[in-house]
């Protein structure tokens, strides 16, 4: 999907405004460092900025046309004056930077500018980082560098000082949900996933996983069994829960989903039904919310958070879940 400046303004309004102004005022820096978590739009912003710098038919003086030969070749990844550097294995090696320097010692093949984008710049080897530093210290005319990182603390201070740093903010749940919907996920999955991660890319991955789809069903079933009797709930743990949530990180995800159900109960009590994420069981949640005090609900939510905390220690996962089930049922009346 082709991104526009308006699309990215919704993701990162401050950074979008700064880069647009640099184009309009012809004050493009020779080196930028995009810093932020994965999935916050760094690469998309870098590619859009690159198109705007090379486009032959800009709209409104900054919006690329996506039709000229420069735009098309950038989108297809074969523009001779645009170079993308990514880790080769676990790191970016000196030879990759050396090859880039040799390429940039030549004049632009098709355009006045030459642009290079370095993905995961924090993964440069020491030798590669030092080679890039020399490159940044003596930038060629009309050369633009765009470095991207999720770990700015691992970038050499000498490289940082030669770049204009732009910090990308984590996406809000509302924005993640909107992007997931636009990507084709349904409302139910988009709502749930947007409360589990601020990373759009991770959200897309979760939305495509059969394991995650099954996880939601198992968690909902546990919640339903919790409201029947304690023996059934403990039996369900053995028969279904532990056969699906086998690893600690999987169990942690299951607890996240369970927590969202109790959070939905709170939203219903506060008359904020538009924020309910488990919409497929909302009628049941509405009924259950009538029989819970906010104090009891707060205790149940705290029990889940405490279980998540203990999970990260060496607590036995089976004992932890059995204790959680008892805590969630304490004081409940079974039907």
From TrEMBL:
Catalytic activity: DNA(n) + a 2'-deoxyribonucleoside 5'-triphosphate = DNA(n+1) + diphosphate
GO cellular component: DNA polymerase III complex
EC number assigned by the record: 2.7.7.7
Domain DNA polymerase III delta subunit C-terminal: 245-329
One Pfam match: DNA_pol3_delta2
InterPro entries per UniProt: DNA_pol_HolB (IPR004622), DNA_pol_III_delta_C (IPR015199), DNA_Rep/Repair_Clamp_Loader (IPR050238), P-loop_NTPase (IPR027417)
GO BP terms in the entry: DNA-templated DNA replication
Keywords tagged on the record: DNA replication, DNA-directed DNA polymerase, Nucleotidyltransferase, Transferase
UniProt GO molecular function: 3'-5' exonuclease activity; DNA binding; DNA-directed DNA polymerase activity
Domain of life: Bacteria
Enzyme class: transferase
SUPFAM superfamilies: P-loop containing nucleoside triphosphate hydrolases
Name this polypeptide is given: DNA polymerase III subunit delta'
């Amino acid at each position: 999907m082709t991104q526009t400046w308006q699309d990215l303004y919704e993701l990162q309004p401050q950074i979008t405004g700064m880069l647009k102004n640099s184009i309009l005022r012809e004050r493009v820096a020779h080196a930028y460092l995009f810093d932020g978590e994965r999935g916050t739009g760094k690469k998309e912003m870098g590619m859009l900025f690159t198109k705007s710098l090379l486009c032959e038919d800009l709209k409104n003086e900054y919006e690329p046309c996506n039709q000229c030969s420069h735009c098309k070749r950038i989108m297809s990844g074969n523009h001779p004056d645009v170079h993308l550097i990514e880790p080769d294995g676990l790191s970016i090696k000196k030879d990759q930077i050396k090859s880039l320097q040799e390429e940039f010692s030549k004049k632009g093949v098709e355009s006045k500018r030459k642009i290079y984008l370095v993905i995961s710049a924090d993964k440069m080897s020491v030798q590669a980082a030092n080679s890039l530093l020399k490159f940044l210290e003596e930038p060629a005319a009309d050369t633009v560098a765009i470095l991207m990182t999720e770990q700015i603390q691992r970038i050499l201070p000498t490289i940082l000082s030669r770049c204009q740093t732009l910090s990308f903010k984590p996406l809000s749940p509302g924005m993640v949900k909107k992007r997931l919907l636009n990507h084709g996920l349904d409302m139910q999955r988009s709502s749930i996933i947007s409360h589990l991660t601020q990373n759009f890319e991770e959200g897309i991955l979760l939305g495509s996983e059969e394991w995650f789809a099954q996880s939601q069903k198992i968690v909902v079933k546990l919640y339903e069994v919790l409201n029947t009797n304690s023996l059934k709930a403990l039996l369900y743990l053995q028969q279904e829960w532990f056969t699906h949530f086998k690893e600690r990180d999987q169990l942690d995800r299951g607890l996240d989903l369970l927590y969202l159900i109790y959070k939905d109960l709170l939203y219903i009590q506060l008359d904020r039904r538009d924020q309910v994420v488990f919409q497929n069981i909302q009628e049941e949640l509405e009924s259950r919310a009538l029989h819970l005090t906010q104090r009891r609900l707060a205790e149940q939510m705290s029990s889940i958070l405490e279980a998540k905390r203990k999970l990260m220690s060496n607590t036995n996962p089976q004992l932890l879940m059995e204790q959680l089930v008892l805590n969630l049922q304490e004081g409940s009346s079974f039907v």
